[in-house]
Every structure is written in structure tokens, then in C-alpha cells.
Design goal:
Layout (H helix, E strand, L loop, with lengths): L7 H15 L4 E5 L3 H11 L4 E5 L8 H17 L6 E4 L5 H8 L10 H20 L4 E4 L9 H15 L2 E2 L9 H12 L10 H20 L1
Parallel strand pairs: 1-2, 1-4, 2-3, 4-5
């Protein structure tokens, strides 16, 4: 497991420098949560890897939202220029997988144990696919979000990478203006930026926040 003082951004930089010195371009399976988060990560990592995107997100609800985000990811990949090829690995939607992972955790707050179970669900699927298809590395775009726990994501990524025999690429993509860059690229490509994380619980919380904001505005 990772320690509390690790700098995942610097670890990634060191690893990438090593790849450049060797002159090697390995294959990376990149779990993608959405197009906006993927944009800056793809711009950065495609310099060093042949990337295959895995849009495995059974947490996203409703299904129309899932389809909308997937379509935006496909559009981004078709329109962006990459130093090395980027492709998508097809996978089916399985909302029941998230329902089962979140069972008993429905009352957890955002960012709590339910989110951890969701991270594990998606990263485990990515690790298994990376091992099955013999990728050298795998990781996720999730660490670009200021709302996501990068330390936890890296811990889970390493744990599951060891379990399935595939190297986890350390990351904290929000560092070095990564999140800022994702906003810039989203504007450049006119990407749809969702206003909730993805699951029904985060959607409901976002709706409650909007209602409270509207109530306060009406009072003032």
C-alpha cells in the first residue's frame, strides 16, 4: 500500500523519463470516466504510450447519461491529435454491478465508503482487462478531479495491479495544472461537462444542492 507522503505526480514523471531514455513506447490501458477528464490526460500520456481507453462506468445513471458521456469520449478521440494512437476498447453497460457494489452503503456520504467501493469496482475491471490483453500498464483518469482521493485511487490501483499481475501507473493528474488544462480543452472541443459525478446518489445530492440554492436566492 502507498504511504501518506508519496508524490504520485513526481513518481509518474520519473517513470516517463525512464521510458524516454529507453526509447520504448509501452501499451497503456486507461480507464476513462468521461471526455472532459480524459482530455488533458490523453494530451499528456499519449506522448509516452500507445493508449487504449476503457469506458467502464456501471455507476453512471441513468443509462441515457452513460450513453451521452460515452459519445462525447468517442468524439474527443476522433477529433484530438495524439502523438501516438489512441483507441477505445468496447465494453457493455452493467448497472447491476454498481448496485451490488453499493449495497449496504446507500447512506454513505459522497467521498465515503460507497465511492471507495465504486473505485474498486471500476479499477478491478480495468486491471483484469489489462492483464487479459497483456498491457504493460494500466491506470485511470479519475485522479484529475479535485473531488477524487488520489491517494486512495493509487492505493487501490497498486493493490489490484499486484493481484492481476499488471503494473499500475501512478498518477495525480490534477497536479501541474492538469485539471485547469482539462477545462481549457473542454472549452476548445465544446465538450459536455456533467454537473454530477455519475451515480444516482451523486445526482440526487446535486439536485438537493440546486434546490437549496434556489430557495436561498428566492429569499434574498
Amino acid at each position: 500500500m502507498a504511504g501518506p507522503s508519496r508524490n504520485y505526480s513526481k513518481e509518474l514523471e520519473k517513470l516517463l523519463q525512464g521510458l524516454q531514455q529507453k526509447g520504448s513506447v509501452p501499451r497503456l490501458l486507461l480507464h476513462a470516466c468521461c471526455a472532459p477528464c480524459s482530455s488533458a490526460v490523453l494530451e499528456y500520456l499519449s506522448q509516452y504510450f500507445f493508449i487504449t481507453l476503457l469506458y467502464y462506468n456501471p455507476n453512471i445513471a441513468p443509462y441515457e447519461e452513460y450513453e451521452k458521456r460515452e459519445a462525447e469520449l468517442r468524439r474527443l478521440v476522433s477529433q484530438m491529435h495524439f502523438a501516438h494512437p489512441v483507441e477505445l476498447l468496447p465494453c457493455s453497460y452493467n448497472g447491476q454491478a454498481f448496485v451490488e457494489a453499493a449495497c449496504g452503503l446507500e447512506g454513505e456520504p459522497e467521498g465515503g465508503k460507497r465511492c471507495e467501493a465504486c473505485f474498486r469496482l471500476r479499477l478491478e475491471y480495468a486491471a483484469k482487462e489489462a492483464a487479459r490483453l497483456h498491457f504493460e500498464y494500466y491506470t485511470t483518469t479519475l485522479t484529475i478531479s479535485p473531488m477524487k482521493n488520489a491517494r486512495l485511487l493509487n492505493q487501490l490501483g497498486e493493490e489490484l495491479g499486484e493481484k492481476y499481475g499488471v503494473a499500475h501507473l501512478p498518477s495525480d493528474f490534477k497536479k501541474k495544472d492538469g485539471y485547469k488544462r482539462s477545462i481549457e480543452l473542454s472549452k476548445e472541443y465544446g465538450l459536455y461537462r456533467q454537473d454530477y459525478c455519475g451515480c444516482a446518489f451523486s445526482r440526487a445530492q446535486r439536485q438537493r444542492e440546486k434546490e437549496r440554492k434556489d430557495q436561498l436566492a428566492s429569499v434574498s
